[in-house]
Amino acid sequence: MHAPQAAYAVQADGLVKRFGETVALDGIDLGVRTGTVLGLLGPNGAGKTTAVRVLSTLLTPDSGHATVGGYDISTEAHQIRQLIGLTGQYAAVDESLTGFENLLLIGRLLGMERSEAKARARELLAEFDLSDAGGRAAKTYSGGMRRRLDLSASLVGRPRILYLDEPTTGLDPRVRLELWALIRRLVADGVTVLLTTQYLEEADELADDIIVIDHGKVIASGTPAQLKAATGTQTLAVRPSDPSHVATVRAVVAELSSTQPEVNGSLVTAPVSDPAVLPAAVRRLDDAGVVVTELTLRSASLDEVFLSLTGHPTERNEAHSGAA
Amino acid sequence: MTATSATAPQTRGQAPPLSSRVGIGEGIAQSFTLAWRTVVQVRHNPWELGDFSIQPIMFVLLFTFMFGGAIAGDWQSYLTFMLPGMIVMNMLFVTLYVGQGLNTDLTKGVFDRLRSLPIARWAPLAGRILADQVKQIWSIILVLGVGMVLGFRLGNGITGMLGATALLLAFALAFSWVGVVVGIMAKDPERVQIYGFTALFPITMVSNVFVPVETLPGWLETVVDANPVSTIADAVRGLMLTGAEAGPIIETLLWAGGIAVVFAPLSVWMFKRRT
Q1: I need a labelling partner for A193 at 20 to 30 A (CA). Which of A157, A232, B68, B186 fits?
Q2: Does residue A305 fall inside a structural domain?
Q3: In whole angstroms, what is the distance from residue A78 CA to residue A221 CA?
């Protein structure tokens, strides 16, 4: 009945969840291919956490249907709980217990023998670089250490499917990079990951596929490259080494792009849709005797994509400055 | 995939077949595992026991020496009258720790983690209640110990004392569900204390714990007699001092059963709504 390697580890059709008047999920469809990372991207309050809570059996949807590892969320929740690991937005560890005891507790709850649970706890502490802190109460841990402990707690049972709900929110950039490396290692080991994030950069870095949600609805989906290609044009940027050539450059770029280029200092930029403009620009500038220090054709950033999809920017900047 | 990696998931071949439900035995084992948390917490921080011991000791001393003479003529006789009731009052207040611990787990997200595990749905709640029985036993020993240092004597011997302890724990188990309800309702752990204290203080005061009912106006006597705290205090007094009386003991057990029947399902229902 359950194929060992189904194409989709997690599949949801038309999930709806209301809290009183608020519609948190308004008919979400999604699929996480086995062994890949799906990035669920959206601003605060878009419904990301609700989606994770439904798919990890913590909430029952009002309507819709979903399977995890081939098991139905409404009738086979107990089986699903044996397959998944969950790391929430806050580090859900018992602060008065040591790191070691936190992991031991989970191991024992999962039915491991005491010696097995202890061995597993030590193994994970070593893997997550927490061996030295393992004997200290979790309340003495730094933010990054707590997240690592939290992540290792969700891995005690060697889950095949892992939910990471905003795993790096509120962490400083260095710790985020550390966590990204850990997540990549998990994926290399064959874990399927559903990752929610409000950081476009994070989805771009980690996800094989991205679903953008806003107000409980899927507003776009695809690979990071597809999303960028589908919504954003590309940007041609030229900077002459001699600032007096700006006017010439502007004229060339205007002709190639058929738009009014933007001039910012000596940098001339314009949106273009045909990648062939790049060699053309090189030839025309060379003919005009203009030497350039910068000549690039770059894809729209996911930030721009996000803005064009949702009509409002992410809270990214505030979140970053708040964390720093 | 390397076979030695700590993070590698189990492949289907190695994994035991998935079970479809949790057995009662497993659920009980899981509750005990969760209760173990509290024991470890106390071991890490023994002062926590000291923290919640100060108030009961203060109450025993205060009532014995400040009010004892005025109420009973001399503090020695008042101590004998009041101490069993004081133990009852303390038992009720300690059940608030269930709510406080539960609320901490809810607000810190620990409960989400527990509920995402393949364990019995009731194990996290039961584990909390079980864990706090350790604190109950400690607080009974504490108040009784302080009383005995001051001269309280067990008129009904060790058996009576053990019977009283068993009855108190039985009632505490049932009343803990009230603590659970408060723990789910409150926004944060501090509020659990505020709500709990506000409710429990009048209930324990308007009882026969501190004063003989004969001194009260008639209408108040009716209220006090109907108060289950008076009933338990009577039962515990009997068991500790003069000999077990079936009436109050049976009534106490009925109250315990009634409270459990109402508040256990209520808390499970509220719990589902909150999460």
Answers
A1: A232
A2: no
A3: 30
Cα–Cα distance, A15 to A25 (Å, whole number): 6
Share of chain A above pLDDT 70, in %: 89
Is there a domain that residue A318 lies in?
no
Listing from the earlier edge strand, what are the strands of the sheet with A192-197? A84-87, A161-165, A192-197, A37-41, A209-214, A217-222
- How far is C-alpha B139 from the geometric centre of its chain's CA atoms? 10
Asked if residue A310 is part of any domain, the answer here is no
Contact B113 A86 (CB under 8 A): yes
pLDDT in tens, A294-324: 888 876 666 666 666 766 655 443 333 333 3
**Residues A115 and A252 reside in one and the same domain:** no
Rounded to whole angstroms, how far apart are CA atoms B68 and B81?
A: 10
Is A114 an interface residue toward B (CB < 8 Å)?
no
Interface size A-B, in CB pairs within 8 Å, comes to 114
Considering the domain architecture, whether residues A126 and A222 belong to the same structural domain is answered as yes
- The proportion of chain B whose per-residue pLDDT surpasses 70, expressed as a percent, equals 93
Using DSSP's 3-state secondary structure scheme, residue B188 falls into coil
- A207, A263: one domain: no
Nearest to A109 among B33, B41, B275 (CB): B33
Domain co-membership, A138 together with A246: no
Give the pLDDT of residue A269.
Answer: 85
CATH code for the domain of A263: 3.30.70.100
Position A311 in a domain: no
Confidence of residue B8 (pLDDT cuts 50, 70, 90): low
Angle between helices B189-205 and B157-185 (to 10 degrees): 130
Q: Which residues in B lie closer than 8 A to residue A123 (C-beta atoms)?
A: 6
Query: How far is CA A64 from its chain centroid?
Result: 24
| A267 and A223 assigned to the same domain | no
> How many structural domains comprise chain A?
2
Residues 12-71 of B with CB under 8 A from A: 12, 18-22, 26, 30, 33-34, 36-37, 40-41, 44-45
What are the C-alpha distances in Å from A214 to residues A221, A304, B49?
12, 16, 49
Q: Which chain A residue lies closest to B17 (C-alpha atoms)?
A: A79
Regarding whether A252 and A218 lie in a shared domain, the answer is: no
Query: Which of the two residues, B11 and A62, has the higher pLDDT score?
Result: A62
Q: Answer with the one of A212, A229, A246 that is the final residue of a domain.
A: A229
| Ordered strands of the A63-68 beta sheet | A22-33, A8-19, A63-68, A71-72
Q: Is A279 on the interface with B (CB under 8 A)?
A: no
> Residue A42: its pLDDT value, please?
86
- Which candidate from A88, A109, A185 shows the least CB-CB separation from B119? A109
Task: Give the tens place of pLDDT for each residue, B185-201.
Answer: 888 888 888 888 888 88
Of A76, A94, A189, the CB nearest to B9: A189
Same domain membership, residue A242 and residue A150: no
Is there a single domain that holds both residue A61 and residue A165? yes
CATH, residue A133: 3.40.50.300
Confidence band of B87 (pLDDT split at 50, 70, 90): very high
Q: Which residue of B has its CA nearest to A124?
A: B6
Give the domain range for residue A41: 8-229
